[in-house]
Design goal:
single chain; mainly alpha; ABC transporter involved in vitamin B12 uptake, BtuC; two-stranded antiparallel sheet; 14 helices; 2 strands; globular; disordered N terminus
């Protein structure tokens, strides 16, 4: 009891230790609920604009497209729960895809070595990011943005500007195939979503991750290895980006330069819209997954309306700003209610 009281004092909390703050609870729980409403609204709007948009087969294909962003967003969620951010995932994803196609040379026999090499790229970069942020105290924005530039240079030098090799047929089958009415990618993403949610909610590692993001000082006093947790979070982010690169190369039939650029802003938007605090410590992947679906539907609707890429970027930037204001509004409402 004494320990809890001391922890609350160190964290700067005025309420009793262990009591959830209403504003934080509201901001966490309301965002996914509102997002579900937006998703349903977009399905209705899309169907009005293009009859057949809401057909099960079309929605299944849209979920397949969302799955790639969803896998990248797993890592981004874990990092942002620690209070950080990963801006290196664009070229980590691209570099992993380039390595995969080059090592495999389009042959099924080379699938496993190529997969191992590609994932090793993500793990190595993520671990370096995590070490620099946790141990060297480098700003996550500065470190990961610099690493993104480094990986862009590495990818250009490695490929000499022209991606080599090809995608094994087995990977093509995995990323474009289906089991019954559901695409394999949707099932893979669903399994990953359930696993991540269980880890965050039901395991010591998940609780440690949230504790470090909520208050590093209290987490350290509680015996949590903050440095280890942060390094693991960034390593997981690199791994997820690399895996998404391999899968996206399989779906596209090739690796190409800049293939990861399209995932950076949307994953940040998804994490924030999903209810995860940009300061860390509160949130989860369930809301992020719903936000990924929302962004995919929004993008598709804008494409149906022939909105230019520039306007689409403006819309995404606006969504980020609105999400931040919405999050702040929920916090302030919760504080006044408590």
């Amino acid at each position: 009891m004494r320990h809890d009281s001391d922890a609350a004092t160190i964290a700067g909390r005025s309420e009793p230790a262990g009591r959830p703050r209403l504003g934080h609870h509201l901001s966490q729980s309301a965002a996914p609920i509102v997002l579900v409403g937006f998703v349903l609204a977009l399905v209705v709007v899309g169907n009005l604009m293009a009859p057949g948009f809401a057909a099960p087969g079309n929605l299944a294909q849209l979920l397949k497209l969302a799955a790639f962003m969803g896998i990248v967003a797993i890592g981004q969620t874990l990092v942002m729960l620690t209070g950080g951010i990963d801006l290196s995932l664009a070229w980590v994803l691209t570099a992993a895809a380039l390595v995969f196609t080059d090592v495999s040379q389009g042959q099924n026999a080379g699938l496993l070595p190529a997969l191992a090499a590609a994932l090793a790229v993500g793990v190595a970069v993520g671990a370096i990011n995590g070490f620099a942020v946790a141990k060297l105290r480098i700003s996550p924005i500065v470190m990961t943005l610099a690493m993104n530039n480094i990986m862009q240079g590495v990818a250009l030098v490695y490929s000499d500007g022209t991606p080599r090799g090809g995608v094994p047929e087995a990977m093509r089958t995995l990323t474009t195939g289906a089991i019954g009415p559901l695409p394999t990618m949707v099932l893979l993403w669903a399994a990953a979503t359930i696993l991540v949610m269980l880890v965050l909610r039901c395991t010591r590692a998940g609780r440690a991750l949230l504790a470090v993001g909520e208050n590093p000082r209290v987490a350290w006093l509680s015996g949590i290895g903050n440095t280890r947790v942060i390094i693991l979070a960034y390593t997981a982010s690199g791994l997820c980006a690399a895996l998404a690169g391999v899968l996206f190369a399989g779906f596209s039939g090739q690796a190409f330069l800049g293939m990861g650029d399209q995932f950076v802003l949307p994953t940040i938007v998804a994490v924030v819209l999903g209810g995860t605090s940009i300061l860390g410590g509160r949130g989860g992947y369930g809301g992020t997954a719903i936000a990924v679906i929302f962004i995919t539907l929004l993008t598709t609707v804008l494409i149906i309306e022939n909105i230019s890429p520039g306007i689409r970027n403006i819309v995404f930037g606006g969504v980020v700003i609105v999400a931040l204001f919405f999050y702040r509004f929920l916090q302030n409402s919760g504080r006044s209610a408590s």
